[in-house]
Each structure stands twice: as C-alpha cells, then as structure tokens.
Amino acid sequence: MQEVEVIETPGTAAVALDPVRTRLLAELRTPASAASLAARVGLSRQKVNYHLNKLQAHGLIEDAGSRRWGGLTERLLVATAAAYIVSPEAMGDAGSNPGRLRDKLSAAYVIALAARIVREVGTMSRNALRDDKSLPVLGLDTDIRLATPADRAAFANDLTAAVARLVSKYHDIDAPDGRWQRLVVTAHPVPKDVDPSPPEEAQFQLDPVVEPSEEREEM
C-alpha cells in the first residue's frame, strides 16, 4: 500500500470523491469484505458491492485475499493507498498553473505552486514506484510565531536573502550532468482552528535526504 496516491484523471477523481466511496476508502486502509463494510457504513451489501466495483474499476482498491466466515468464503479488498489527493491534472486546462499568475504575493499564486508540486511530484513518484526506484526529494515544514507585521516583513527579507545566497552558491548552469530542481518556499498564516505543531518550540521536520552516492535514477 502506498502512503499517498495522487489521482490524475477526471473519471477517477469523480469516483473517489463520492462521499460513500471516500468513507469506504478510509475503511479499507485495512482489508475488509463487503459484508463487514456494509455493517460499518450502514448500507446494504448490494449497494456496498456497487461502490466497491466502481472503486476497483478505477484502480483505487485491489484484492487482498479471502477468509472463511460462517461457512462462506469472503473476498477481501484493500485500498491501494492510505490517503489520496486529487492532482490539478484532473482539471485539464482549467487546473491551476502558477505560470498564468502575475501577482507573486497573492494567495492564488501560493495555491498554484502547491498544486504544481502535487502534479509534478505525484507523477514522478508513481513512475518511481512502478520502476522500483527512489525519488530524491526534500521537505521542510515548521511553524514560527511572529510578533508584528514588521517582524514578518523582516523575516521575509532575511529568508529571501538566505535563499538567494544558497542558490548563488550551488547553482551551476554549465554542469554537464546537472539536473534542474524546483525550490518552493511559502509562508502563510496558520488557520485559527488549527493548532500549530510543535506548540512551543519550532523544529524542522525533514524527510530523509538522499545523499548523492545513494541516489538512483530520477524520473
């Protein structure tokens, strides 16, 4: 089972976003039968089977063996991923694209950047999984409490300068075997109904960094 699967096609997105099917996908993080699912979600077994057939036809669930229950053999199914996200690719030309936005300080631009990450990394991750290869990525996530708007502006200026220094240090336009990397940095307020993590002292949460000697072929 994948940790996250990115849905790229409109048909699959439409199937997955049905409320009953999203509930079934959540229940199927562990293998289950149609009968047990029917009891959990409060639907008839026939209706549950209908939704399961739709999910399986679009590759969102798969067979997970069988078990004996009450003298009968039940087919078990399991979700293909622990979580799903819909790529802007599913929206076609209507999907968000940062290249079409001029205001680099707008919320729309930040959303478009995040959508591009989902689209690009989602596709490369699927290809890497298919080919049993690793995809070298780095994720940074932290929270910071700023006292005043002036502090926020100063922090933004310092962060911009630090990124510029790093890019100037490592950027090599003439490297014969070099590969372009995307670097996206955003800052936005934490929603009022969300508790920041960690609550007291900000710490970086890092995904494992793949050292150059450990990198496999990229997608």
Describe this structure in words.
This protein has 219 residues and is an alpha+beta fold. The protein has 2 domains: 2-84, Winged helix-like DNA-binding domain superfamily/Winged helix DNA-binding domain (Arc Repressor Mutant, subunit A, Orthogonal Bundle), CATH 1.10.10.10; 87-214, no CATH class. The chain has helices at 10-16, 19-27, 34-41, 45-57, 107-130, 149-170; strands at residues 2-7, 61-69, 72-79, 81-86. A hairpin with a 2-residue loop joins strand 2 (61-69) and strand 3 (72-79). The model is unreliable at 205-219 (pLDDT under 50).
Strand order of the largest sheet: 1-4
Low-confidence stretches: 205-219
Instruction: Please report the distance between the alpha carbons of the first and last residues.
Output: 20 Å
User: Helix/strand-derived class?
Assistant: alpha+beta
**Radius of gyration over alpha carbons?**
22 Å
Helix content: 25-40%
Number of domain units: 2
Series of secondary-structure elements, N-terminal to C-terminal: EHHHHEEEHH
Could you tell me the strand content as a percent range? Answer: 5-15%
How many beta-strand runs?
4
Mean pLDDT: 88
Bulk shape: elongated
**How many helices?**
6
From the structure above, extract its key features:
219 residues, alpha+beta, Arc Repressor Mutant, subunit A, 2 domains, two-stranded antiparallel ribbon, 6 helices, 38% helix, disordered C terminus
